[in-house]
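Co-fold these.
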Amino acid sequence: MTNSQQGHSLDIQRIRADFPVLDVEVQPGVKLVYLDSGATSQKPVQVIERMNQYYRAENANIHRGVHKLAEQATEDYEAVRGKLAKFINAAKSKEIVFTRNATESVNLVAHTWGRANLQAGDVVVLTEMEHHANLVPWQMLAAERGIRLEFIPVTEEGVLDMSALPALMELKPKLVSFTAMSNVLGTITPIAEIVQAAHAAGALAMVDGAQSVPHLPTDVRALDIDFLVFSSHKMLGPTGIGVLYGKEALLEAMPPFMGGGDMIKRVKLREFSTAGVPHKFEAGTPAIAEVIGLGAAVDYLTEIGMEQIAAHDRELTAYALERLEEVPGIWIFGPGIEHKSSNASFTLKGAHPHDVAEILNRSGVATRAGHHCAMPVHEKFGVPATTRASFYLYNTTEEIDTLVEALYKVKEIFK
Amino acid sequence: MDDLYREVIIDRYQNPRFSGTLDPHTHSYEDDNPVCGDHIRIDLRVDDKDIVTEAKFTGEGCSISQASADLLMEKITGMPVADVRGLAKQDILDLLGIELGPVRLKCALLSLKVLKGGVYGLDEVMSLDELAES
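Predicted complex below.
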Protein backbone atom coordinates (compact mmCIF):
# COMPACT_ATOMS: atom_id res chain seq x y z
CA MET A 1 0.00 0.00 0.00
CA THR A 2 1.60 3.27 -1.01
CA ASN A 3 0.45 6.44 0.53
CA SER A 4 -0.72 8.44 -2.43
CA GLN A 5 -2.58 5.81 -4.45
CA GLN A 6 -5.22 4.47 -2.12
CA GLY A 7 -8.27 4.83 -4.29
CA HIS A 8 -8.79 8.53 -3.69
CA SER A 9 -7.21 11.58 -5.11
CA LEU A 10 -5.29 13.11 -2.21
CA ASP A 11 -1.80 14.08 -3.35
CA ILE A 12 -0.14 13.57 0.00
CA GLN A 13 3.33 14.64 -1.01
CA ARG A 14 1.96 17.94 -2.28
CA ILE A 15 -0.04 18.37 0.92
CA ARG A 16 2.98 17.55 3.09
CA ALA A 17 5.00 20.22 1.31
CA ASP A 18 2.51 22.77 2.67
CA PHE A 19 3.32 21.84 6.29
CA PRO A 20 6.79 23.14 7.18
CA VAL A 21 6.82 21.43 10.58
CA LEU A 22 6.79 17.99 8.93
CA ASP A 23 10.39 18.65 7.85
CA VAL A 24 11.57 19.25 11.40
CA GLU A 25 14.10 16.82 12.84
CA VAL A 26 13.15 16.19 16.47
CA GLN A 27 16.63 14.80 17.06
CA PRO A 28 19.54 14.89 14.63
CA GLY A 29 18.59 12.60 11.76
CA VAL A 30 15.16 11.75 13.16
CA LYS A 31 12.24 13.36 11.36
CA LEU A 32 9.00 14.21 13.08
CA VAL A 33 6.24 11.65 12.60
CA TYR A 34 3.29 13.64 13.82
CA LEU A 35 0.52 11.34 15.05
CA ASP A 36 -1.05 13.77 17.52
CA SER A 37 -3.52 15.71 15.38
CA GLY A 38 -6.31 14.75 17.76
CA ALA A 39 -4.64 17.08 20.26
CA THR A 40 -3.93 19.79 17.72
CA SER A 41 -3.36 19.69 13.98
CA GLN A 42 -0.34 21.12 12.24
CA LYS A 43 -0.76 24.32 10.20
CA PRO A 44 -0.17 24.72 6.48
CA VAL A 45 1.97 27.56 5.23
CA GLN A 46 -1.18 29.15 3.76
CA VAL A 47 -2.57 29.69 7.26
CA ILE A 48 0.72 30.84 8.76
CA GLU A 49 1.36 33.27 5.91
CA ARG A 50 -2.17 34.63 6.01
CA MET A 51 -1.76 35.54 9.69
CA ASN A 52 1.67 37.03 9.06
CA GLN A 53 0.24 39.09 6.23
CA TYR A 54 -2.47 40.39 8.53
CA TYR A 55 0.04 41.47 11.16
CA ARG A 56 2.50 42.85 8.61
CA ALA A 57 0.14 44.87 6.47
CA GLU A 58 -3.46 44.77 7.66
CA ASN A 59 -3.55 44.96 11.47
CA ALA A 60 -6.41 47.05 12.86
CA ASN A 61 -9.23 46.59 15.33
CA ILE A 62 -12.62 45.64 13.94
CA HIS A 63 -16.15 47.05 14.24
CA ARG A 64 -14.66 50.41 15.25
CA GLY A 65 -12.68 52.97 13.20
CA VAL A 66 -13.60 54.09 9.74
CA HIS A 67 -10.04 54.13 8.48
CA LYS A 68 -8.99 51.92 5.60
CA LEU A 69 -7.31 49.16 7.61
CA ALA A 70 -10.12 48.99 10.18
CA GLU A 71 -12.70 48.61 7.44
CA GLN A 72 -10.67 45.96 5.67
CA ALA A 73 -10.03 44.00 8.87
CA THR A 74 -13.73 44.07 9.73
CA GLU A 75 -14.63 42.87 6.28
CA ASP A 76 -12.07 40.04 6.36
CA TYR A 77 -13.07 38.96 9.86
CA GLU A 78 -16.77 38.87 8.98
CA ALA A 79 -16.06 37.07 5.71
CA VAL A 80 -14.71 34.12 7.71
CA ARG A 81 -18.11 33.80 9.36
CA GLY A 82 -19.54 33.31 5.90
CA LYS A 83 -16.90 30.71 5.00
CA LEU A 84 -17.63 28.77 8.16
CA ALA A 85 -21.38 28.94 7.61
CA LYS A 86 -20.84 27.46 4.17
CA PHE A 87 -18.38 24.89 5.50
CA ILE A 88 -20.97 23.40 7.89
CA ASN A 89 -23.97 24.36 5.71
CA ALA A 90 -25.49 26.81 8.18
CA ALA A 91 -28.31 28.94 6.81
CA LYS A 92 -26.78 32.27 7.83
CA SER A 93 -23.40 33.76 8.71
CA LYS A 94 -24.87 35.24 11.89
CA GLU A 95 -25.38 31.71 13.22
CA ILE A 96 -21.59 31.46 13.60
CA VAL A 97 -20.31 32.78 16.94
CA PHE A 98 -16.57 33.07 17.58
CA THR A 99 -15.30 31.84 20.93
CA ARG A 100 -11.86 30.86 22.23
CA ASN A 101 -12.28 27.13 21.60
CA ALA A 102 -14.87 24.34 21.58
CA THR A 103 -14.70 24.25 25.37
CA GLU A 104 -15.72 27.89 25.62
CA SER A 105 -18.53 27.24 23.14
CA VAL A 106 -20.00 24.56 25.41
CA ASN A 107 -19.58 26.82 28.41
CA LEU A 108 -21.32 29.63 26.54
CA VAL A 109 -24.37 27.45 25.91
CA ALA A 110 -24.39 26.09 29.47
CA HIS A 111 -24.00 29.58 30.89
CA THR A 112 -26.54 31.44 28.76
CA TRP A 113 -29.06 29.01 27.30
CA GLY A 114 -28.67 26.68 30.28
CA ARG A 115 -29.27 29.30 32.92
CA ALA A 116 -32.20 30.78 31.02
CA ASN A 117 -33.89 27.46 30.35
CA LEU A 118 -32.92 24.84 32.92
CA GLN A 119 -34.44 24.51 36.38
CA ALA A 120 -33.83 22.06 39.21
CA GLY A 121 -34.80 18.56 38.14
CA ASP A 122 -34.52 19.26 34.41
CA VAL A 123 -32.68 16.50 32.57
CA VAL A 124 -29.65 16.95 30.32
CA VAL A 125 -28.56 13.80 28.49
CA LEU A 126 -24.86 13.33 27.68
CA THR A 127 -22.88 10.20 26.79
CA GLU A 128 -20.29 8.18 28.69
CA MET A 129 -17.66 8.97 26.04
CA GLU A 130 -17.64 12.75 26.38
CA HIS A 131 -14.52 14.87 26.56
CA HIS A 132 -14.38 16.78 29.83
CA ALA A 133 -15.36 19.88 27.83
CA ASN A 134 -18.85 18.50 27.32
CA LEU A 135 -19.12 17.12 30.82
CA VAL A 136 -17.74 19.54 33.41
CA PRO A 137 -19.79 22.61 32.29
CA TRP A 138 -22.94 20.53 32.83
CA GLN A 139 -21.68 19.21 36.16
CA MET A 140 -21.11 22.83 37.21
CA LEU A 141 -24.67 23.67 36.22
CA ALA A 142 -25.91 20.58 38.05
CA ALA A 143 -24.14 21.75 41.21
CA GLU A 144 -25.51 25.28 40.82
CA ARG A 145 -29.02 24.53 39.56
CA GLY A 146 -29.77 20.95 40.54
CA ILE A 147 -30.25 19.82 36.95
CA ARG A 148 -30.07 16.07 36.48
CA LEU A 149 -27.46 14.49 34.20
CA GLU A 150 -28.12 11.21 32.44
CA PHE A 151 -25.83 9.34 30.09
CA ILE A 152 -26.14 7.25 26.96
CA PRO A 153 -23.97 4.25 27.91
CA VAL A 154 -20.96 3.04 25.96
CA THR A 155 -20.90 -0.66 25.04
CA GLU A 156 -17.95 -3.01 25.51
CA GLU A 157 -17.23 -2.53 21.82
CA GLY A 158 -16.92 1.22 22.33
CA VAL A 159 -20.05 2.48 20.58
CA LEU A 160 -23.09 4.19 22.07
CA ASP A 161 -25.72 1.81 23.37
CA MET A 162 -28.60 3.13 21.31
CA SER A 163 -31.03 0.68 22.91
CA ALA A 164 -30.87 2.89 26.02
CA LEU A 165 -32.02 5.95 24.11
CA PRO A 166 -35.84 5.47 24.24
CA ALA A 167 -35.86 5.17 28.05
CA LEU A 168 -33.64 8.25 28.36
CA MET A 169 -35.94 10.22 26.05
CA GLU A 170 -38.91 9.27 28.23
CA LEU A 171 -37.29 11.41 30.94
CA LYS A 172 -38.22 14.36 28.69
CA PRO A 173 -34.76 15.92 28.64
CA LYS A 174 -34.35 19.59 27.76
CA LEU A 175 -31.03 19.00 26.01
CA VAL A 176 -29.10 16.10 24.52
CA SER A 177 -25.44 17.02 24.11
CA PHE A 178 -23.04 14.50 22.61
CA THR A 179 -19.82 14.04 20.73
CA ALA A 180 -19.92 13.29 17.02
CA MET A 181 -16.55 11.52 17.24
CA SER A 182 -14.89 10.27 20.41
CA ASN A 183 -11.41 11.70 20.95
CA VAL A 184 -10.35 8.46 22.64
CA LEU A 185 -12.22 5.66 20.87
CA GLY A 186 -12.54 7.35 17.48
CA THR A 187 -16.17 6.25 17.51
CA ILE A 188 -18.40 8.08 15.03
CA THR A 189 -21.79 8.43 16.70
CA PRO A 190 -25.17 8.24 14.90
CA ILE A 191 -25.85 11.98 14.90
CA ALA A 192 -29.06 11.96 12.87
CA GLU A 193 -30.65 9.26 14.99
CA ILE A 194 -29.84 10.99 18.28
CA VAL A 195 -30.94 14.42 17.03
CA GLN A 196 -34.25 12.97 15.83
CA ALA A 197 -34.86 11.22 19.13
CA ALA A 198 -34.00 14.40 21.04
CA HIS A 199 -36.37 16.50 18.95
CA ALA A 200 -39.15 13.94 19.24
CA ALA A 201 -38.77 14.16 23.03
CA GLY A 202 -38.88 17.96 22.93
CA ALA A 203 -35.16 18.40 23.62
CA LEU A 204 -32.56 20.47 21.82
CA ALA A 205 -29.56 18.67 20.33
CA MET A 206 -26.02 19.92 20.76
CA VAL A 207 -23.11 18.26 19.00
CA ASP A 208 -19.47 18.38 20.10
CA GLY A 209 -17.75 18.48 16.73
CA ALA A 210 -14.21 19.15 17.99
CA GLN A 211 -13.00 15.86 16.49
CA SER A 212 -15.57 15.35 13.73
CA VAL A 213 -15.59 18.74 11.99
CA PRO A 214 -11.88 18.50 11.02
CA HIS A 215 -12.31 14.96 9.67
CA LEU A 216 -15.81 14.53 8.25
CA PRO A 217 -18.14 16.63 6.13
CA THR A 218 -20.60 18.49 8.37
CA ASP A 219 -24.11 19.57 7.45
CA VAL A 220 -25.95 21.18 10.36
CA ARG A 221 -29.14 21.67 8.35
CA ALA A 222 -29.39 18.15 6.98
CA LEU A 223 -28.84 16.82 10.50
CA ASP A 224 -31.07 19.50 12.07
CA ILE A 225 -28.47 20.21 14.77
CA ASP A 226 -29.41 23.00 17.20
CA PHE A 227 -25.91 23.77 18.51
CA LEU A 228 -22.54 22.64 17.16
CA VAL A 229 -19.19 23.42 18.79
CA PHE A 230 -15.70 23.01 17.32
CA SER A 231 -12.16 24.37 17.51
CA SER A 232 -9.99 26.00 14.89
CA HIS A 233 -6.73 24.46 16.02
CA LYS A 234 -7.77 20.89 15.28
CA MET A 235 -8.68 21.79 11.66
CA LEU A 236 -5.43 23.39 10.48
CA GLY A 237 -6.22 26.80 11.99
CA PRO A 238 -4.53 28.64 14.85
CA THR A 239 -5.20 28.15 18.57
CA GLY A 240 -7.28 30.67 20.47
CA ILE A 241 -10.36 30.52 18.28
CA GLY A 242 -13.39 28.28 18.46
CA VAL A 243 -16.84 28.24 16.95
CA LEU A 244 -20.36 27.96 18.26
CA TYR A 245 -23.02 27.34 15.66
CA GLY A 246 -26.56 27.91 16.86
CA LYS A 247 -29.86 28.19 15.05
CA GLU A 248 -30.68 31.86 14.70
CA ALA A 249 -33.88 31.79 16.75
CA LEU A 250 -32.11 30.03 19.61
CA LEU A 251 -29.20 32.46 19.62
CA GLU A 252 -31.61 35.42 19.46
CA ALA A 253 -33.47 34.19 22.53
CA MET A 254 -30.33 33.58 24.60
CA PRO A 255 -28.99 36.14 27.07
CA PRO A 256 -25.51 37.50 26.35
CA PHE A 257 -22.38 35.75 27.64
CA MET A 258 -19.66 38.15 28.77
CA GLY A 259 -20.22 41.86 29.06
CA GLY A 260 -18.10 44.60 27.52
CA GLY A 261 -17.39 46.32 24.25
CA ASP A 262 -18.77 45.02 20.96
CA MET A 263 -21.64 43.08 22.55
CA ILE A 264 -23.78 46.16 23.20
CA LYS A 265 -26.11 48.34 21.22
CA ARG A 266 -26.22 51.18 23.75
CA VAL A 267 -24.76 51.73 27.22
CA LYS A 268 -25.80 54.18 29.94
CA LEU A 269 -24.25 54.46 33.37
CA ARG A 270 -26.68 52.01 34.91
CA GLU A 271 -27.96 49.96 31.99
CA PHE A 272 -27.17 48.56 28.58
CA SER A 273 -28.96 47.02 25.65
CA THR A 274 -27.37 44.12 23.80
CA ALA A 275 -26.18 43.98 20.22
CA GLY A 276 -27.79 41.49 17.87
CA VAL A 277 -26.61 38.00 17.04
CA PRO A 278 -23.76 37.02 16.82
CA HIS A 279 -22.07 40.10 18.28
CA LYS A 280 -23.84 39.90 21.61
CA PHE A 281 -21.75 36.81 22.36
CA GLU A 282 -18.43 38.37 21.31
CA ALA A 283 -17.47 40.89 24.00
CA GLY A 284 -14.15 42.67 23.64
CA THR A 285 -11.58 42.63 20.89
CA PRO A 286 -11.57 39.10 19.47
CA ALA A 287 -8.66 37.07 18.11
CA ILE A 288 -8.78 38.82 14.74
CA ALA A 289 -5.63 37.37 13.19
CA GLU A 290 -6.67 33.91 14.34
CA VAL A 291 -10.13 34.22 12.80
CA ILE A 292 -8.54 35.31 9.54
CA GLY A 293 -6.11 32.38 9.83
CA LEU A 294 -9.03 30.03 10.41
CA GLY A 295 -10.55 31.40 7.21
CA ALA A 296 -7.41 30.34 5.32
CA ALA A 297 -7.67 26.88 6.96
CA VAL A 298 -11.27 26.52 5.83
CA ASP A 299 -10.23 27.52 2.30
CA TYR A 300 -7.48 24.90 2.40
CA LEU A 301 -9.79 22.12 3.62
CA THR A 302 -12.50 23.12 1.15
CA GLU A 303 -10.11 23.10 -1.77
CA ILE A 304 -8.97 19.58 -0.98
CA GLY A 305 -12.51 18.51 -0.15
CA MET A 306 -13.83 17.12 3.11
CA GLU A 307 -15.07 13.95 1.40
CA GLN A 308 -11.52 13.25 0.21
CA ILE A 309 -10.07 14.01 3.61
CA ALA A 310 -12.61 11.73 5.30
CA ALA A 311 -11.75 8.92 2.90
CA HIS A 312 -8.02 9.38 3.48
CA ASP A 313 -8.38 9.46 7.28
CA ARG A 314 -10.52 6.36 7.18
CA GLU A 315 -8.04 4.44 5.04
CA LEU A 316 -5.17 5.45 7.29
CA THR A 317 -7.14 4.40 10.37
CA ALA A 318 -8.03 1.06 8.79
CA TYR A 319 -4.36 0.52 7.92
CA ALA A 320 -3.27 1.52 11.43
CA LEU A 321 -5.74 -0.87 13.08
CA GLU A 322 -4.56 -3.69 10.84
CA ARG A 323 -0.86 -3.04 11.53
CA LEU A 324 -1.28 -2.41 15.26
CA GLU A 325 -3.17 -5.64 15.76
CA GLU A 326 0.01 -7.49 14.74
CA VAL A 327 1.83 -6.22 17.83
CA PRO A 328 1.76 -8.82 20.63
CA GLY A 329 0.25 -7.57 23.89
CA ILE A 330 -1.56 -4.61 22.33
CA TRP A 331 -5.10 -3.72 23.34
CA ILE A 332 -6.78 -1.31 20.95
CA PHE A 333 -9.76 0.58 22.32
CA GLY A 334 -12.94 1.40 20.47
CA PRO A 335 -14.86 -0.20 17.66
CA GLY A 336 -13.65 -1.53 14.34
CA ILE A 337 -13.18 0.65 11.27
CA GLU A 338 -16.89 0.48 10.35
CA HIS A 339 -17.66 2.78 13.31
CA LYS A 340 -14.52 4.85 13.72
CA SER A 341 -11.95 7.07 12.13
CA SER A 342 -8.90 9.22 12.72
CA ASN A 343 -7.36 7.70 15.81
CA ALA A 344 -6.22 4.54 17.54
CA SER A 345 -5.85 4.47 21.32
CA PHE A 346 -4.13 1.48 22.82
CA THR A 347 -2.26 0.00 25.73
CA LEU A 348 0.73 -2.28 25.49
CA LYS A 349 1.04 -5.05 28.07
CA GLY A 350 3.82 -4.42 30.57
CA ALA A 351 4.55 -0.83 29.55
CA HIS A 352 2.80 2.25 30.90
CA PRO A 353 1.39 4.58 28.21
CA HIS A 354 3.80 7.35 29.24
CA ASP A 355 6.76 5.07 28.77
CA VAL A 356 5.33 3.96 25.44
CA ALA A 357 4.98 7.56 24.27
CA GLU A 358 8.47 8.42 25.52
CA ILE A 359 10.07 5.57 23.60
CA LEU A 360 8.00 6.30 20.48
CA ASN A 361 9.34 9.84 20.69
CA ARG A 362 12.87 8.52 20.19
CA SER A 363 11.81 7.39 16.73
CA GLY A 364 10.35 10.86 16.17
CA VAL A 365 6.82 9.54 16.63
CA ALA A 366 4.63 12.09 18.44
CA THR A 367 1.65 10.51 20.19
CA ARG A 368 -0.31 11.44 23.26
CA ALA A 369 -0.33 9.45 26.48
CA GLY A 370 -2.77 9.95 29.31
CA HIS A 371 -6.51 10.17 29.75
CA HIS A 372 -6.99 12.61 26.84
CA CYS A 373 -9.36 14.76 28.92
CA ALA A 374 -11.83 11.88 29.02
CA MET A 375 -11.30 10.17 32.37
CA PRO A 376 -14.77 8.54 32.59
CA VAL A 377 -14.37 6.57 29.37
CA HIS A 378 -10.99 5.29 30.58
CA GLU A 379 -12.59 4.30 33.86
CA LYS A 380 -15.25 2.46 31.89
CA PHE A 381 -12.58 0.34 30.23
CA GLY A 382 -10.65 -0.06 33.47
CA VAL A 383 -7.42 1.68 32.44
CA PRO A 384 -6.05 4.96 33.83
CA ALA A 385 -4.41 5.94 30.56
CA THR A 386 -3.86 4.99 26.94
CA THR A 387 -1.44 5.95 24.19
CA ARG A 388 -3.24 7.59 21.29
CA ALA A 389 -2.04 7.87 17.71
CA SER A 390 -4.23 10.21 15.68
CA PHE A 391 -4.17 10.83 11.97
CA TYR A 392 -4.91 13.60 9.51
CA LEU A 393 -4.65 14.48 5.86
CA TYR A 394 -0.85 14.85 5.90
CA ASN A 395 -0.14 11.43 7.42
CA THR A 396 1.05 8.44 5.41
CA THR A 397 0.99 4.67 5.77
CA GLU A 398 4.80 4.80 6.04
CA GLU A 399 4.43 6.86 9.19
CA ILE A 400 2.16 4.19 10.64
CA ASP A 401 4.84 1.63 9.78
CA THR A 402 7.32 3.76 11.74
CA LEU A 403 4.89 3.74 14.68
CA VAL A 404 4.63 -0.03 14.61
CA GLU A 405 8.42 -0.48 14.37
CA ALA A 406 8.84 1.85 17.31
CA LEU A 407 6.33 -0.18 19.32
CA TYR A 408 8.59 -3.18 18.92
CA LYS A 409 11.39 -1.08 20.45
CA VAL A 410 9.12 -0.46 23.44
CA LYS A 411 8.63 -4.19 23.77
CA GLU A 412 12.37 -4.72 23.68
CA ILE A 413 12.92 -2.36 26.62
CA PHE A 414 9.98 -3.68 28.64
CA LYS A 415 10.45 -7.32 27.78
CA MET B 1 22.84 3.34 25.52
CA ASP B 2 19.60 3.95 27.31
CA ASP B 3 19.84 6.54 30.04
CA LEU B 4 16.19 6.91 30.93
CA TYR B 5 15.38 3.23 30.91
CA ARG B 6 18.42 2.09 32.88
CA GLU B 7 18.30 -1.49 34.00
CA VAL B 8 17.63 -0.50 37.59
CA ILE B 9 14.51 1.44 36.60
CA ILE B 10 13.04 -1.34 34.47
CA ASP B 11 13.92 -3.87 37.18
CA ARG B 12 12.29 -1.84 39.96
CA TYR B 13 9.24 -1.21 37.77
CA GLN B 14 8.79 -4.86 36.90
CA ASN B 15 9.86 -6.32 40.26
CA PRO B 16 9.26 -3.78 43.02
CA ARG B 17 10.70 -4.79 46.40
CA PHE B 18 8.54 -2.53 48.55
CA SER B 19 5.17 -2.92 46.97
CA GLY B 20 2.16 -3.42 49.25
CA THR B 21 0.30 -1.93 52.18
CA LEU B 22 0.96 -2.01 55.94
CA ASP B 23 -1.75 -2.87 58.43
CA PRO B 24 -1.42 -1.52 61.04
CA HIS B 25 0.56 1.55 60.00
CA THR B 26 1.38 4.83 61.71
CA HIS B 27 1.19 6.90 58.54
CA SER B 28 -0.73 6.44 55.30
CA TYR B 29 -1.16 8.95 52.56
CA GLU B 30 -2.01 8.91 48.86
CA ASP B 31 -2.10 11.35 45.99
CA ASP B 32 -2.29 11.69 42.21
CA ASN B 33 -0.34 13.49 39.58
CA PRO B 34 -3.31 15.30 38.04
CA VAL B 35 -1.53 15.74 34.71
CA CYS B 36 -1.22 12.03 33.96
CA GLY B 37 -3.37 10.29 36.56
CA ASP B 38 -0.43 8.47 38.17
CA HIS B 39 -1.35 7.40 41.69
CA ILE B 40 0.76 6.44 44.69
CA ARG B 41 -0.11 5.42 48.23
CA ILE B 42 2.55 5.07 50.89
CA ASP B 43 2.16 3.32 54.26
CA LEU B 44 4.76 3.77 57.01
CA ARG B 45 5.46 2.24 60.41
CA VAL B 46 7.32 4.70 62.60
CA ASP B 47 8.48 3.48 66.02
CA ASP B 48 8.56 5.41 69.30
CA LYS B 49 12.12 6.57 68.55
CA ASP B 50 10.78 8.26 65.44
CA ILE B 51 12.47 5.87 63.08
CA VAL B 52 10.80 4.46 59.97
CA THR B 53 10.86 0.73 60.53
CA GLU B 54 8.83 -0.25 57.49
CA ALA B 55 7.69 1.46 54.30
CA LYS B 56 5.48 0.18 51.49
CA PHE B 57 3.83 1.69 48.46
CA THR B 58 1.11 0.81 46.01
CA GLY B 59 0.30 2.70 42.90
CA GLU B 60 -0.31 2.96 39.25
CA GLY B 61 1.87 4.81 36.84
CA CYS B 62 4.84 4.89 34.53
CA SER B 63 8.15 3.16 35.15
CA ILE B 64 9.74 6.37 36.45
CA SER B 65 7.06 7.02 39.06
CA GLN B 66 6.91 3.42 40.24
CA ALA B 67 10.68 2.81 40.26
CA SER B 68 11.34 6.03 42.15
CA ALA B 69 8.71 5.06 44.73
CA ASP B 70 10.35 1.66 45.24
CA LEU B 71 13.85 3.14 45.55
CA LEU B 72 12.55 5.78 47.94
CA MET B 73 10.91 3.17 50.21
CA GLU B 74 14.23 1.35 50.37
CA LYS B 75 16.09 4.53 51.23
CA ILE B 76 13.81 5.58 54.09
CA THR B 77 13.58 2.18 55.75
CA GLY B 78 15.52 2.62 58.99
CA MET B 79 15.75 6.38 58.59
CA PRO B 80 14.83 8.87 61.37
CA VAL B 81 11.71 10.86 60.48
CA ALA B 82 13.69 14.08 60.84
CA ASP B 83 15.90 12.93 57.97
CA VAL B 84 12.88 11.87 55.90
CA ARG B 85 11.60 15.41 56.24
CA GLY B 86 14.88 16.68 54.87
CA LEU B 87 14.70 14.64 51.64
CA ALA B 88 14.65 16.81 48.55
CA LYS B 89 14.37 16.62 44.79
CA GLN B 90 18.06 15.88 44.34
CA ASP B 91 17.85 12.79 46.55
CA ILE B 92 15.32 11.28 44.17
CA LEU B 93 17.40 12.15 41.13
CA ASP B 94 20.42 10.56 42.81
CA LEU B 95 18.44 7.39 43.49
CA LEU B 96 17.34 7.15 39.87
CA GLY B 97 20.69 8.21 38.50
CA ILE B 98 19.21 9.89 35.45
CA GLU B 99 18.47 13.34 34.10
CA LEU B 100 14.80 14.13 33.63
CA GLY B 101 12.89 16.66 31.58
CA PRO B 102 10.21 18.79 33.23
CA VAL B 103 7.34 16.36 32.57
CA ARG B 104 9.06 13.17 33.71
CA LEU B 105 10.53 15.01 36.70
CA LYS B 106 7.02 15.20 38.12
CA CYS B 107 6.59 11.45 37.58
CA ALA B 108 9.75 10.91 39.60
CA LEU B 109 8.75 13.29 42.39
CA LEU B 110 5.22 12.00 42.99
CA SER B 111 6.39 9.48 45.61
CA LEU B 112 8.36 12.16 47.46
CA LYS B 113 5.30 14.37 47.49
CA VAL B 114 3.17 11.56 48.91
CA LEU B 115 5.84 10.70 51.48
CA LYS B 116 6.03 14.29 52.65
CA GLY B 117 2.24 14.39 52.83
CA GLY B 118 2.41 11.33 55.10
CA VAL B 119 5.08 12.58 57.46
CA TYR B 120 4.15 16.27 57.58
CA GLY B 121 0.39 15.99 57.49
CA LEU B 122 -1.76 17.52 54.79
CA ASP B 123 -1.17 21.20 55.23
CA GLU B 124 2.53 21.61 54.83
CA VAL B 125 3.02 19.70 51.60
CA MET B 126 4.55 21.34 48.60
CA SER B 127 2.70 20.89 45.34
CA LEU B 128 4.35 18.83 42.60
CA ASP B 129 5.07 22.04 40.72
CA GLU B 130 6.78 23.54 43.76
CA LEU B 131 8.77 20.36 44.33
CA ALA B 132 9.86 20.25 40.71
CA GLU B 133 11.09 23.84 40.92
CA SER B 134 12.73 23.36 44.34
